[in-house]
Write a structure and sequence with these properties.
It is elongated and about 65 Å long. By secondary structure, the protein is mainly alpha-helical. Helices cover 50% and strands 10% of the residues.
Length: 105
């Protein structure tokens, strides 16, 4: 059974009450970080967003997709970009690939 975010936060707050003198609990999720009890740290740690890939990476596919209207060529260009082990490039390529595949039918 999976717990909702609010259930996890409530449970962490309860547990933190019993260890408030000795420490704190950190709850991580894909898009947030919570500390319990909330007053245990002087400031919440901030995680900078990952860097965006340079737009130039996607230029060959986008030129094929938009200027040349060559969807098969654009699809191939985006598929190639899903292979590198760079999450930001993969995410951008998958987004563009999905858009192009939808256009292609």
């Amino acid at each position: 059974m999976a717990l909702s975010d609010s259930q996890i936060s409530a449970q962490a707050e309860r547990l933190a009450g019993s260890i408030a003198q000795a420490g704190f609990i950190v709850v991580l999720s894909p898009d947030s970080l919570e500390v319990h009890p909330r007053t245990s740290l002087p400031y919440p740690p901030a995680v900078p967003p990952p860097p965006e890939p340079p737009a130039s990476v996607f230029v060959p596919g986008e030129e094929s997709e938009f200027k040349g209207r060559d969807l098969p060529k654009a699809i191939q260009a985006y598929r190639t970009l899903t292979k590198p082990n760079i999450p930001a490039v993969q995410a951008g390529a998958l987004l563009r690939l999905g858009r192009t595949l939808r256009k292609a039918g």
